[in-house]
Amino acid sequence: MLTEQQITDRFEFGVRLIHDAGAVAALYFKDIDALTIESKGPQDMVSEADRNTEILIRDRLKARFPEDAFFGEETGASALEGANGIWVVDPIDGTQPFVSGLSDWCISIAFLVGKSPEIGLVFNPIKDELFAAQKGHGATLNGKPIYCNKGQTIKDGVVSVGYSMRFPPETTLTIMRNLLEGGGKYHRNGSAALSLCYVACSRLLGYIEPHVNSWDCLGALTIITEAGGQTNDFLADEGLLKGNRIIAAAPAVYKEIEGLFEAQHRLP
Fold first, then answer.
1. Which pTM does this prediction carry?
2. CA atoms of 23 and 3, how far apart (whole Å)
């Protein structure tokens, strides 16, 4: 079992590492026309920027903490069983915005001990915003404390709705219809990690998506809980390896946002 100081050492190393990785990714972003881009499936892309940024993160973590396991979107999992902890990494969350020249992308790093998320780091190099949290120490944006929105209903702000081809459009249409007919407003930027961090710093009331992979959200979930927000048990039912639905919100509106999944209205 890791001590508090050992987790703090990992947090401090992770902060330095995510800044270095962000600098590398930003260099690719400045020359996106030269990138080699491949399709992993419908609306799912990968570039050399994703791969090389992840390799940098993986190799630096392995050199500093060889006893830890690693699970990355592009290079997969290694030595998960019996590890002191697991680093879960998305080198570029929001690859579609990235390759489109949009600024809504980030690097996400999480560290888990068993099923307990202990560290969450999400960095947007273009906006120079680092969202960070260590369990029990609160959440920050560029070193300043952040807290979830104080809204009482979905009418009091904006809710981000995620979408992927892993679920039929009707699922998302149900969520959207319930949200709009309930008087809410929606937001989508193509990065689950960033949207979740916007929940943590009160820019958004909540985030909801029928299915998201663990590397897209685990870093941000730690940040949300440390900012006083509420989330579903994402790691249930093998969420780490298989992904899960995600609901994250300011506490007062959590139940209302969770209810957006329900088929309260008949789709046309």
1. 0.93
2. 31
